[in-house]
Amino acid sequence: MKLDLRKLKLRKVNETLQSIDPKKNNKNYTILNPEGNHAVCAGLTDDIEVTVKGHVGYYCGGMNQNANITVEGNVGTGVAENMMSGKIHVKGNASQSAGATAHGGFLIIDGDASSRCGISMKGVDIIVKGSVGHMSAFMAQSGNLVVCGDAGEALGDSLYETDIYIRGKVKSLGADCIEKKMDNKHLKKLDNLLKKAKLNKLKSKDFKRYGSARKLYNFKIDNVSSY
Amino acid sequence: MCGIVGIYLKSKKFENDLGKMLSGMLINMESRGPDSAGFAIYTKEKKDELKYSICINNLAFEKFKKDISKKIKLTKILKNSDHVILRSKEKLKKVLNILNEFKGVSLVGFGNSIEIFKQIGNPKEVVKMFNLENFSGTHGIGHTRMATESAITTDGSHPYSTGSDECLVHNGSLSNHNNLRRNLTKKGVNFSSENDTEVAAGYISNHLSNKKNLKDTLKSGLSDLDGFYTFITGTRKGFAIVRDEIACKPAVVAETKDYVAIASEFQAMAHLPGVNMAKIFEPEPGIVYSWGN
């Protein structure tokens, strides 16, 4: 089914995708002329396939559950923000805060993602085939961030328990983020993620793992004079 | 919030459509700035002749024309809503002094090529009021304002003139503008509002008048201007864009063989010809990008 955003209002398009009739068994949708609209495919709950033909604005696929969304273009701020499950595949670049606070699901970005990619992520798996900007995985709590290119300044600042895998260079690490050893279980986990993203040519051993030093977890009495 | 937009034409193909392109961008950015709007457009210039963009507010045009002609030798004067474009071959300093002393009008910009129009109101109305669609030119920048730092007034609207054929639009807020304003006032820079962007404009014009080039000025601004910002600065030959190092304020650039477009959000340029085939990217934080300069 084709939904043209030049002819239909965004609200109508989202409503259609949010209220799928399971009896009709129509699982494939294409959105035409997104023209940078915000909140395209926000709040989907059903196991459907949506292809967006063009560039979109902010919060594309926000709060997604179960849907499989492919964007054939760039996405603005906060793609897949607060995603719970399902998959979002961006074929272009992503702006800042991609996958922000997302609890689950899978986010793949073929190009680059700018600053704060995976900010406060809570369980989503994010794979960026290009590079990420500054303060990526800021306060990230759970899940995996895999970057095939480079990472900008202050990677993983104030990090909790997200695993970060970077193949290229890291400009600098944020507070409490350190490089960690790649054990077999990490290599295995990363192999699975790369396979899921069909990145069969990349080798997990070429990545480095970063995580929390866990020094910010508790108040340190030695720092009392700073407050 | 606030929305900022700009177009620089790399070829002559769209010169007659410049106003139309910019107008569509401004109208789309209403969601980011419904309080006031403005634009600077670089159009045909004549040698030895300067253009002055003046807001005459409530003054009657015919009376203003009569009064100003007595003081300045004009080559042409054209009314566009409550703005006037005055052309003269007289010395810049003399004209500026006369206009400064002329009650009830405010100078919004001057130069060989630049024309600036800005007013309070919804971008759609402002664009219509000044007939932006009918303008042709080589490049232009525009702004839609959501007022945060100071009141909704014409003086608080963008673009701000930063010197001959130069102007500035801003999305963001500056936190050290009061201190900077005091320091710049001591150096002889005049301000007409409490607006933070006017301080940034004053900062830029002060640096430029001290023979610094635009790129270096914007680079030094990265350490002197404290706050969040994306700036677009227009010059006679082109424009430049810079984002602060935290880069909270958005910007996206689309470049084709015929033009470079800048906007706060992609949707503002979704109507531009061939934009889906354009090279689209976000300017990196703390880096000055310029075209045509």
Description:
Helices cover 10% and strands 22% of the residues of chain A. With 227 residues, chain A is mainly beta. Chain A has a single domain (2-226), classed as Pectate Lyase C-like (3 Solenoid). Chain A has an eleven-stranded mixed β-sheet, covered by helices on one side. Chain B has 293 residues and is α+β, with helices and mostly antiparallel strands. Chain B folds into two domains: 3-44 and 123-291, Glutamine Phosphoribosylpyrophosphate, subunit 1, domain 1 (4-Layer Sandwich); 46-112, Alpha-Beta Plaits. Chain B is built from seven helices and 16 strands. Chain B has helices spanning 18-28, 61-71, 92-101, 123-129, 177-186, 196-209, 214-224; strands at 3-9, 36-42, 50-55, 74-80, 83-88, 106-111, 114-120, 139-145, 160-163, 166-174, 227-234, 239-243, 252-255, 259-263, 279-281, 289-291. In chain B, the strands form three sheets. A seven-stranded antiparallel β-sheet of chain B has the order 7-2-8-1-14-13-15, covered by helices on one side. Chain B has a five-stranded antiparallel β-sheet with strand order 9-10-11-12-16. In chain B, a hairpin with a 2-residue loop joins strand 9 (160-163) and strand 10 (166-174). In chain B, helix 5 packs parallel to helix 6 and helix 6 (196-209) packs across helix 7. Chain B starts with a strand and ends with a strand. The A-B interface holds A 35-38, 54-58, 73-74, 76-77, 92-93, 95-96, 114-115, 133-134 and B 247, 250, 252, 265-271, 276, 280-282, 284-285.
